[in-house]
Amino acid sequence: MPASVRRAIIHQFARCKVRILLLSDIHSNVEALEGCVAAAPVCDLVVNLGDIVGYGANPNEVIERSRSMGKHFVRGNHDKAAAGLMDLKDFNPIAGMAALWTREQLSPENLEWLRGLPQGPIHIPEVPQAQFVHGSPIDEDEYVVTPRDALEPLMATKVPLTFFGHSHVQGAFSTNPSETGGLRPIYKTVGQKEVMEMQLKQGVEYLINPGSVGQPRDGDWRAAFAVFESEEYRVSFHRVPYNLKSAQDRILAANLPQRLATRLATGR
Ligand code: ZN
Question: What's the CA-to-centroid distance between 81 and ligand 1, angstroms?
Fold first, then answer.
């Protein structure tokens, strides 16, 4: 990106101070969502990076709660699957079963709303230097897990900040030569509420994943989210304990596959 364009974007951005709550991969886990909402600071905007439903037992509740918090959403592959917008042959049997179960549970209004969600990247006027996607800015269904996966999207991006989900792994990748291995928050505990701040640098491109609210896969069972503060040019990664037992019990009571309940305890 030419320096003049970057300066113009940063200048425009600096005039509107915003604090954004970033939520991704809630996966119908209403207990985890409520845990995040209770722990999050007051924010100006909420951006949801997709996979609102699938796997968990409360798709309608999670959709309604999410819609009450804001209007910025990107669709995820599980949202598409539950809405009947993609072939389930790409899903493993457990994910496919959960998608069909979800479709049967959804109210007609929520099903219609899910069908209408936009494909990323989406852009928001208040944050012109950022884009929001589910998988990668190049392909909405692509997983960005390793620094190698991040390379092409980082090189192709026209904005400094890309917020993404899909991998269920909290952290970031950047073009800073000293951060080529990626950035993962390091926490002190395994069961308490914690925050880790990451100061962003000007002139560096970032791919930032707030982690999964409702089904973390980075070895930490706590619900994950992030907050972006424009004025400080900073991202805070959060982990919060939530009512895991209740989420598991509801999955089992709904006769969803047992694995969907047990994996929540290990964050895998
Ligand atoms: Zn997901």
Answer: 11
Using the mean position of ligand 1's atoms as its centre, give its distance from the Cα of residue 168 in Å: 6
Quick one: CA dihedral 185, 198, 173, 134, positive or negative? Answer: positive
CA distance 129 to 159: 5
Nearest to 25 by CA among 99, 75, 64: 75
Q: Is the pTM of this model over 0.90?
A: yes
Q: How far is the CA of 181 from the centre of ligand 1 (A)?
A: 23
3-state secondary structure 84-109: CCCCHHHCCHHHHHHHHHHHHHCCHH
Q: Ligand 1 centroid vs 3 CA: distance in angstroms?
A: 35
pLDDT along the chain (268 residues), means of 10: 57 70 98 98 97 98 98 98 93 96 98 98 96 98 97 95 98 93 95 97 97 98 98 97 98 97 97
Number of Cα atoms under 13 Å in the Cβ half of residue 249: 5
Q: Are 77 and 100 in contact (CB under 8 A)?
A: no
